[in-house]
Amino acid sequence: MTEKKTVIIGAGISGLLCGKRLVEAGHSVLILDKGRNIGGRLSTRRTDGAVFHHGASSIPDFYNHKELPEFGLEIFKRAEKERIIQRKGNLFQPINSVADFVNYCGTNLNIRKSCEAISLNLYNKTIVVKCRGGVHEKTTYDLLVLSIPPNQAKTLINKQINKFDSLIEKVQMRSSAAALFSFDINPEHVKEKHFSNEKVLIQVENNRFKCEQQLFCLTVHTKEPFAKKIVKNDKNTIKELLLKEIIDIVPFSLPKPTYEAGHRWLYGFTERPLGNPYLYYKREKVGICGDWCSGSTILDAASSGIKLGEQILNL
């Protein structure tokens, strides 16, 4: 077993499966993520009596994804066999919650949540991390993986890798806004699975997956170009704007929400990918992965992370 320490910044699917590939080959891996929960855009939020899946909630057919390495295919197949996910037409969805699938991918990994990397020194191989309570820590590494959106990678690298900034200029990301609402009405009376107009898609959480929920729960996702119009607002304003859309669309009267929250995905969707499955800088000992490297789906993210892990194993 190697004694070298790999640090992965970002616990989305790309970072998790890169870490899993390395750990199963005997590497020492630490994953850092600024969020309270792992999964990145595969996100489940729980409150009293309510569950929301406010990020991606389905997986393309991995049996037909030609770029997915065998290691990834086996993980998804095991998740299906163990009833973590199930087929729904041409897609796969979690049986109980998105969080179940994310936690399945993160099994046996050393992950520190609520730890945000705020600066890197690639010469000294040192990361400054801001943890809970604003406490700053330093951690060292032998090899670094950035599994984060391109703009965040650019900020952390901070011109320490020659021509990196110009390389990722070709990548185009699209933002999105969302909001979560619960209402104290009996959800059993609502049979619809979703509502929509030209601006938003409203997902009825009670009618998908098997989460126990006592409240009527809605997740609102913005469509283009409305998303671009409102995403630069603060989260409270986003919440208020999307609540107005709900009131206009839902065909029955709603009481005051018992829970409400706005959310922004500043780098939610890849419009133009990099065109490479990952980046690796041998001299700096830095690898970079994510769906934005080669596509826009969960499987693109998985493929990118696993392929980078396999490149590291071949060094």
What form results from the Cα inertia axes?
Answer: globular
Low-confidence stretches: none
Radius of gyration: 20 Å
Q: Which fold name corresponds to the CATH topology of the largest domain?
A: FAD/NAD(P)-binding domain
Query: What gap, in angstroms, lies between the N and C termini?
Result: 15 Å
Order of helices and strands: EHEEEEHEEHEEEEEHHEEEEHHEEEH
Q: What count of structural domains?
A: 2
CATH class of the largest domain: Alpha Beta
Quickly give the structural class.
Answer: alpha+beta
Counting DSSP H or I runs of 4 or more residues, the number of helices is 8
Tell how many strands the DSSP assignment holds: 19
Helix content: 25-40%
> Which architecture name of the largest domain does CATH use?
3-Layer(bba) Sandwich
Let me know the average pLDDT. Answer: 94
- What does the largest sheet look like? 6 strands, mixed
CATH superfamily name of the largest domain?
A: FAD/NAD(P)-binding domain
Strand coverage percent: 25-35%
* Strand order, largest beta sheet: 8-2-1-12-19-18
Describe the secondary structure blueprint for this structure.
Elements: E1 5-9, H1 13-24, E2 28-32, E3 45-47, E4 50-52, E5 59-60, H2 70-81, E6 85-88, E7 91-94, H3 98-105, E8 111-112, E9 116-121, E10 126-130, E11 136-140, E12 143-146, H4 150-157, H5 164-167, E13 172-183, E14 194-196, E15 200-204, E16 216-222, H6 226-230, H7 235-249, E17 259-272, E18 279-281, E19 286-288, H8 298-313
Parallel strand pairs: 1-2, 1-12, 2-8, 12-19
Antiparallel strand pairs: 3-4, 5-7, 6-7, 9-10, 10-11, 13-16, 13-17, 14-15, 15-16, 18-19
Helix pairs in contact: 1-8
